[in-house]
Amino acid sequence: MMPSLKTQIHWFTRAQQVMLGGILFVGTLFFMGVYRPASARIQHLAEQITQSERQLAVSQLQARALPAVQADINRLQAKLADFKKLPTTPGDLGQFQIELAHLADRDHLRGWSVSWPGTPRRSDQFYELPVNVKFAGDFRDVFAFLCQLEDLPRLTRITSMIVKADNASGGVEVDLLMSLYYSEG
Questions:
Q1: Tens digit of pLDDT for each residue in 119-172?
Q2: What's the 3-state SS for the chain?
Q3: Residues 95, 101, 107, CA angle at the centre, nearest 5°?
Q4: What CA–CA distance (Å, rounded) separates 55 from 173?
Q5: Does the structure show a pLDDT above 70 at 81?
Q6: Is the Cα torsion angle 47, 48, 53, 54 positive or negative in sign?
Q7: pLDDT of residue 37
Q8: Top-level CATH class of 90-183?
Q9: How do the domains of the chain map onto residue ranges?
Q10: Nearest-10 Cα torsion for 130, 142, 169, 109
Q11: Which of 90, 136, 142, 149 has the highest CB neighbour count under 10 A?
């Protein structure tokens, strides 16, 4: 026998209510178990992206200043290297004075003096320090001294020389300006 129409409507209403309850239950489970955690994760990732973008902007701003900072560092390192290479203590130039005094004694020069009239100048590969040397002696001894300057362990170059005849003793007086060179390495 077939159920009555009223019973069938009642079953279908019940079935609709069960289906609606099931859909609401599944929807609630989906919202609580999938949608809400995914939304929270997306929001967290969006905040991380925003924070990373801010950090990137700050880092880019700092990176723009890096070439100027590197140029300052290079300039200061070059300046520091200059100070390290320059003869700054009497002991640094003392050996050079000893070598000159030894040559002057060997060549019987008299009235010998050394002075440093200027400050060292830096070029691309070396440092140049002006040295003023004054002495007197026989012409042959002076000539021998000048020839032996080339044999010194340091590179020197005579930049100017004034030679005057000393009528009283028959010798010469020499005022010599030379450059003493220091290697870059």
A1: 778 777 777 888 899 999 888 888 898 888 877 777 778 899 999 987 777 789
A2: CCCCHHHHHHHHHHHHHHHHHHHHHHHHHHHHHHHHHHHHHHHHHHHHHHHHHHHHHHHHHHHHHHHHHHHHHHHHHHHHHHHHHCCCCHHHHHHHHHHHHHHHHHCCCEEEEEECCCCCEECCCEEEEEEEEEEEECHHHHHHHHHHHHHCCCCEEEEEEEEEEECCCCEEEEEEEEEEEEECC
A3: 140
A4: 74
A5: no
A6: positive
A7: 92
A8: alpha beta
A9: 1-85, 90-183
A10: 70
A11: 142
Lowest average pLDDT, out of 82-86, 100-104, 124-128, 136-140, goes to 82-86
166, amino acid identity: D
Alpha-carbon distances, residue 80 vs 70, 85, 106 (angstroms): 15, 9, 39
Q: What is the pTM of this model?
A: 0.48
Question: What residues are paired with 166 via a beta bridge?
Answer: 171
Q: What is the pLDDT of residues 162-172, one digit of tens each?
A: 999 877 777 89
**Contact present, 165 and 129 (Cβ < 8 Å):** no
Token readout for 1 is: 């026998």
